[in-house]
Amino acid sequence: MEKKLDPWALAASLGVVCVVFVVFIGVAAMFGWGEELVPLVSSIYIGFDSTVVGVLIGAVWAFVDGVIGGALIAALYNFFADRTS
Could you report the per-residue pLDDT of 49-80, keeping only the tens digit for each? Predict the structure, then answer.
């Protein structure tokens, strides 16, 4: 049995998870919950803020970040899985 991950599937999945996280933080901060997280997230994703536009900007950054991270994780996993089998 081959132990391979599909880099694009993992990349898209992790991108969506990152978007959900950032949107949740932004929307929650709009209602006064977790406002302390906004400066932290905005230090990572430029333009993120607890506004509708800021959440959309953060979501785009988060998706790109998640896609890159997911593709790298899958590529590294496949690389090491090939070496150990």
Answer: 999 999 999 999 999 999 999 999 999 999 99
CB atoms within 10 A of CB 50: 21
DSSP letter at 9 equals: H
Other beta carbons within 10 Å of 55: 23
Long-range contacts of 18-21 (CB under 8 A, 24+ apart): 18/62, 18/63, 18/65, 18/66, 18/69, 19/59, 19/62, 19/63, 19/66, 21/62
DSSP 19-69: HHHHHHHHHHHHTTSSTTHHHHHHHHSTT--SSHHHHHHHHHHHHHHHHHH
